[in-house]
Fold this sequence. Notes:
Blueprint: H1 4-35, E1 55-57, H2 73-96, H3 105-130, E2 146-148, E3 187-189, H4 202-228, H5 237-262, E4 278-280
Antiparallel strand pairs: 1-2, 3-4
Amino acid sequence: MSRALPKYDKRRVAVIGGAAAVVLSGAVIAGSALAGTPAGSGGATGARTLAGPGTISCPDVASRLPAVPASARAEVDRNLALLQTQIQEANKRLKDTAGQGGPNFVDNAILGPLKNKRVATVNRIATAIGRTTAKPTGLDALAPCALNAGGDATTGGGQASAPATPSGGANQQPGGGTAGGNTGAGTISCPDVASRLPAVPASARAEVDRNLTLLQTQIQEANKRLKDTAGQGGPNFVDNAILGPLKNKRVATVNRIATAIGRTTAKPTGLDALAPCTLTR
């Protein structure tokens, strides 16, 4: 027994030592797992980790296009609709991935891919127009989108951009003005008319194009007035002095377009609904 006992003790020590090694190994693995856990995935998020609140906001493309030739209308409309779908998909991904990722998750996983898709889409629009007339340039600048925290997303197709709530806290008025009068910030955004027209008869093309150009001129003049009157007026200055008169001009212009088309074929209806514009921040 005196000789067997040391052997027994050695075996017991070996067993205990092995168990301790297993426990120690488990502790090391657990510690390594904790050390590798990203700080943003456990609840605390980086600057743009939480991909849930807010919506994706993109510049309007349709309102920046020149007159679209009839031969390009179907392809342009199809790609304008695709821009809308891309924004909808991005907003769904924003909601589905709430709480995921690191500091740049929204930029890298949502806004970046969306920009790439929009670049390809606006280039197809420009190419379609360029087959018949001068190819529009600079549309790539409308590709980047932004995250409006709790705001309304602007659309990338035929509708006017919805104004986002100003970060300074001013109260937004229904027509786009702010409680502090005209700050001179933002631009006038109007629904696209050209994309809502039926096929334009050749006999009406010149008059329609002339009035479509006039619609663009009216927006440019309104934006100039917005800038020139910065700091002026009361709570409804922008609505009453800029957006209201612009709407009246646009009503007259779209009615002339409808009348020109109606001389040869069915007169389009409902164009008056495209007359109101908004102030986009």
